[in-house]
Structures are given as structure tokens and as C-alpha cells.
Specification:
Elements: H1 6-23, H2 33-55, H3 61-82, H4 90-93, H5 98-109, H6 114-132, H7 148-179, H8 184-206, H9 232-248, H10 258-265, H11 269-280, H12 284-302, H13 307-313, H14 319-330, H15 334-358
Helix pairs in contact: 1-2, 1-8, 2-3, 2-8, 3-5, 3-6, 5-6, 6-7, 7-8, 9-11, 10-11, 12-14, 12-15
Length: about 350
């Protein structure tokens, strides 16, 4: 019977995610390319793990070490690009290749410190990702607002996975010290398989891929910046944004992000985000989605247009996100909202006909 290591199954799933990322509209946008590279690295690393622990090909261990350092660096690069208005040039990103280059050199001249270097790399980039997450979903200013919260959660998952890998490396070192590495193979194989699958899914979601979204919740987004009260400047920025949304209907743009809104207002993205947080008590993505949902309600009330079509007309791309936001704003589903509204309209029309019939 042919033995197929579990990491190869994970590789297949990662390749499917990669294909979906490439096929999506805008999938090759500059800010998305690092996510594609990152997913390719995940898939290749999964193959190496399958060959190493499934077929005991120990000669691949140096390649695993190099790919590990590259994965940590590209995880940071990918999400850092979402936090910039314009993607960083490859020249600016080149210093992040130094950990992988150091691993290559150490593999040639002195393998002793390789494990420590990889552990430090994962810990450093894990901490850096959590630092990047300190501004909440609005910190990812280049992320499409329709999926900003999911991108933010993917950022947290990736940061946690890197720190968990750091902890796993420490456990493995302790296992070698106590038992000579009796359990190291199982820890590495299982831990890497779970991590790669979770990281690949997170990368696909953050790059704009469709994925299962969390259940509806009315709780505020993480790290929401709310002051004791908005300043006059906050009020002026919020009013300018309200006017812009109402006059130009920017919310209808499915690719709208915080960076684009800030450029329209001629302000830094962080200034706009803080103003919306303080004045409206919500994130920019929730603020924009409120406009979209109000537009959807108006269409639902006045026409029989299919829900999927009006969802796109209002600026949503993900049906699950549309349903989640609709429930957050209205407390019901689009179908139920339409049914209730149509019942109310029919009752009003019936009352009007009775009034006209009974009038002299």
C-alpha cells in the first residue's frame, strides 16, 4: 500500500489555496504578491517536511532551515505591505533576506547556531507582527475594507503561529537534552503540518481570498481607539468624510480601502482612522459598511432585485461578510428584512385602498 505522508496532503490543500489566490481579480496586485510567494514557500516547506519525516530523507534538513527563515521574513513583509499606502520596493525589503542568508552561511561553515538563529528569527518576526497589529484592523490601510477584519485576524494568527513555532523549538531542544530527541520527530512533523495549514489559510484570507467568516457579532473591533470625546479636528475630519461618502458614494467601490479614502481627503490614513473611531465609535470598515447596508436596505425595500446582485452593487464582494454586516446593522437577515418590509408595504397599500373606498 502506498504511504502518503500527511504533509503532502497539506501541500495539496496549500496549492488549491494558491490557485484560488491567483485566479481572483487583482490577485497579482503589488501588495498581494508577497502573499503568493509566502504560500508557495509554505507549500514547498510542506513537501520538504513530508520527504524528511515521511521517507527519512535527512539530506533535506538544510533546505528546511533556509525555508523556515524565508517564511518568517515573508510573513512580515506580506502584512507590512498591507499597512502601507504603497508596497515597499524589493530593495527596501532585501534586509529581511539576511536571516536566510545567515542560515545558508552557517550551514556551510558552522551548523551549531542554526537552530538558535531560526528560533530568534521566528520570535523576532512574531513579536513584530503583534506590534504591527497594535492599531487594529484600521492599521491595514491597503486591505480591502470588505475584508479588513479578516485580514487583521489572519495577521494575529500568523504572529501567534510564529511564536508557537518558537516555543516548539524550545520544547524540541529540551527533548534532545532530556531524551536524546525521542519525541522531536513527532513534534516537528505534527507542529509544522498544523502551522503550515493554518498559515496558508491565513495568507489566502489576508490576500483577499474568500473564506469562511466568523459568526456575526456586535462587539467592537480589537484595539479600537476611542478617546473620552472627539476633538474639533476629529469632528471636522468626520464631517468631511460623511460629505465625501454621501456625495460621491465611495462605499460602492468594492476595492475601497483606508489608504484610498485618506488620499481623497488629503489626510494621513491614521488621522482618518482616529477621527472615525472617536466620532462614530467604530472602525473605518464598519463605518463604510454601514453606508453599504443602508443602501442595501433601500434597494431591498423598493425592488425585487436578487440579494446577490444588490450585494455587489452596494460594494460587498463576500456574501458571508454581507450577511454578517447586515445582521450587525439591522439585527436580521436580508431575506427576512425584505419579507418584513414587503408585508408592511402591502399593509399600508391595503389601508390606503380602504381609505379611498370609504371616503365620500
Amino acid at each position: 500500500m502506498l504511504f502518503v505522508p500527511l504533509p503532502f496532503v497539506v501541500t495539496l490543500l496549500l496549492v488549491i489555496l494558491l490557485v484560488r489566490m491567483v485566479r481572483q481579480a487583482g490577485g497579482m496586485a503589488p501588495e498581494k504578491r508577497p502573499f503568493l510567494i509566502l504560500t508557495v514557500l509554505y507549500a514547498l516547506q510542506s513537501v520538504l517536511i513530508g520527504l524528511r519525516w515521511g521517507y527519512d530523507v535527512s539530506a533535506l534538513m538544510p533546505a528546511q532551515a533556509v525555508f523556515a527563515a524565508l517564511i518568517a521574513a515573508f510573513a512580515w513583509i506580506s502584512f507590512a505591505n498591507l499597512a502601507r499606502e504603497t508596497p515597499a520596493s524589493w530593495l527596501r525589503l532585501s534586509p529581511h533576506l539576511l536571516p536566510a542568508a545567515l542560515v545558508v552561511i552557517l550551514m556551510i561553515v558552522w551548523r551549531g547556531p542554526v537552530g538558535a538563529v531560526i528560533t530568534a528569527t521566528f520570535a523576532g518576526y512574531g513579536i513584530a507582527l503583534f506590534w504591527l497589529a497594535r492599531h487594529g484592523p484600521d492599521g491595514l490601510i491597503s486591505s480591502r475594507l470588505d475584508g479588513a477584519l479578516l485580514s487583521y485576524r489572519s495577521l494575529l494568527i500568523t504572529g501567534f503561529a510564529l511564536l508557537a513555532s518558537t516555543a516548539a523549538d524550545i520544547v524540541i531542544s529540551f527533548d534532545f537534552y532530556r531524551t536524546g530527541g525521542a519525541h522531536a520527530g513527532a513534534v516537528v512533523a505534527v507542529g509544522n503540518v498544523i502551522s503550515l495549514l493554518a498559515l496558508g489559510t491565513a495568507a489566502a484570507v489576508a490576500s483577499g481570498g474568500q473564506s469562511s467568516e466568523p459568526a456575526a457579532s456586535s462587539s467592537p473591533p480589537p484595539n479600537l481607539v476611542v478617546a473620552a470625546g472627539p476633538t474639533e479636528e476629529d469632528g471636522a475630519v468626520a464631517k468631511s468624510l460623511d460629505d465625501l461618502m454621501q456625495s460621491r458614494q465611495l462605499y460602492r467601490d468594492p476595492e475601497l480601502n483606508l489608504g484610498r479614502i485618506a488620499r481623497k481627503l488629503g489626510l494621513p490614513a491614521r488621522r482618518v482612522s482616529v477621527a472615525v473611531n472617536r466620532v462614530h465609535g467604530m472602525s473605518v470598515s464598519q463605518y463604510v459598511n454601514d453606508f453599504r447596508i443602508r443602501e442595501a436596505c433601500a434597494i431591498l425595500a423598493g425592488s425585487d432585485e436578487p440579494v446577490t446582485r444588490l450585494m455587489f452593487d452596494c460594494g460587498f464582494i463576500s456574501k458571508s461578510n454581507f450577511n454578517r454586516e447586515f445582521l450587525r446593522v439591522t439585527g436580521t437577515s436580508p431575506t427576512e428584512y425584505r419579507r418584513r418590509n414587503q408585508t408592511t408595504v402591502m399593509a399600508l397599500r391595503s389601508a390606503e385602498r380602504k381609505t379611498l373606498f370609504m371616503s365620500p
